[in-house]
Specification:
The protein has about 325 residues and is an alpha+beta fold. Helices cover about 60% and strands about 20% of the residues. The strands form 3 sheets. The chain has a 3-stranded antiparallel β-sheet with strand order 3-2-5, with helices on one face. It has a 3-stranded antiparallel β-sheet with strand order 6-7-8, covered by helices on one side. A hairpin with a 5-residue loop joins strand 6 and strand 7. Helix 3 crosses helix 5. The longest helix is centred in the last third of the chain and has 99 residues.
Length: about 325
Amino acid sequence: MTLGAVASVILAIGGAALFSSVHKIEEGHTGVYYRGGALLTTTSGPGFHLMLPFITTFKSVQTTLQTDEVKNVPCGTSGGVMIFFDRIEVVNYLIPSAVYGIVRNFTVDYDKALIFNKVHHELNQFCSVHTLQEVYIGLFDQIDENLKLTLQEDLTMMAPGIIIQAVRVTKPNIPESIRRNYELMESERTKLLIAAQTQKVVEKEAETERKRAVIEAEKVAQVAEIKFGQKVMEKETEKKISEIEDSAFLARQKAKADAEFYTSQRTAEANKLKLTPEYLQLMKFKAIAANSKIYFGSEIPHMFMDSGPGSSSSRTSKAIDILSEDLLNLD
């Protein structure tokens, strides 16, 4: 063999060794290493790394959020009915610092032992103590939460570092005859709910009408009360105006009466001052003068101041004298 051929073989072997020693770890994964089938304590993060060629191997373990699907899980209820869950999804992730311990105890395929098998076990435990009615309808909304809590409790004790984020359980498949009965029951329940909702709508409409009638009645009553108040205020105003007018009229009449009384009183006082003998004599002559008659012609009869005892003038003079004395006596 020539020297060139030996060099070529050496270069080929070196290239193969270099190629097998360089490896890449993807982001969100952690690399674990085996040498001769034994797990090494060394782990690596994302990027390119070197290892001993031909005798050391590696595997990449995902440490980001992942979804494990457990399919076609059989489950027997307490009544003996066998049902099947088509798909159960378990959302989980592995803490990077716990990768070595998990892989050492449960290998790289740890999810088969810790999640898949555990879901089968826990789901059958749940179904065995509940009836078909409870599993299919009554408690179905609680299965995913109960399964999540149970898985997390067991994993915390058995394999710390695995976090269960969520569990989603699909509706189980039940025998066709039972499924039809449930569909019929759901149909009747839907009709009942529709009837109940219709009744509530009717009651609500009646309540709305009643409230509307009450509001209208209250509005009419309030309007009537306002109008009544207005009329009362108008009457009170008219009453006050009438009282003011009556008071003004009474004041005017009283003032008029007081004025008339004062005038009469002053007139009486003035007349009293006038009733003197001289004034009365003057009034006597004025009265006589007022009753005198004047005759014109060739023959004049007796004058009114006839001195005879039976004449009318004499009688008038006597009457005036008597009146004057009475007035003086009254004074």
